[in-house]
Write a structure and sequence with these properties.
Length: 103
C-alpha cells in the first residue's frame, strides 16, 4: 500500500512538473532587455501621442483604426511582461509530494 501511494505521488509530481516546464518554455521567450525597453518606450510615446490628439475631427473608420492600434499595443506590452508565477498552493503541493516521496 505504501509503495502504491509513493508511486502515485511520483506520477502526479512528474505530471505537474512536465506541465509547468512546457508552460514556462512557451510563455517566456528569451529576448533582449534593451530591445524590450525600446519597444516599451515606443509604445508609451505612441499612447501619449494618441491621448493628446483631437479626436473630434476624426471619422469613424479612423477612430476604429486608433482603437485597433491601441489594442495591438496593449497586447504587445503585455507580451513584454510575460512571466511564470507559482501560487502558494502549488508550492505547498510540491512540498507535500516531496515529503511523501522521501519518506
Amino acid at each position: 500500500m505504501k509503495n502504491l501511494i509513493k508511486s502515485t505521488a511520483v506520477a502526479i509530481f512528474i505530471l505537474f512538473s512536465s506541465i509547468s516546464a512546457s508552460a514556462s518554455s512557451v510563455s517566456t521567450p528569451s529576448s533582449d532587455p534593451t530591445k524590450d525597453a525600446l519597444t516599451y518606450s515606443r509604445i508609451i510615446n505612441r499612447v501619449t501621442e494618441i491621448q493628446g490628439m483631437d479626436k473630434t475631427n476624426l471619422s469613424a473608420d479612423d477612430k476604429k483604426d486608433l482603437r485597433r492600434e491601441l489594442t495591438k499595443m496593449k497586447k504587445e506590452a503585455a507580451a513584454l511582461n510575460s512571466r511564470v508565477y507559482l501560487s502558494v498552493g502549488a508550492i505547498i503541493i510540491a512540498i507535500l509530494l516531496l515529503i511523501l516521496i522521501l519518506n
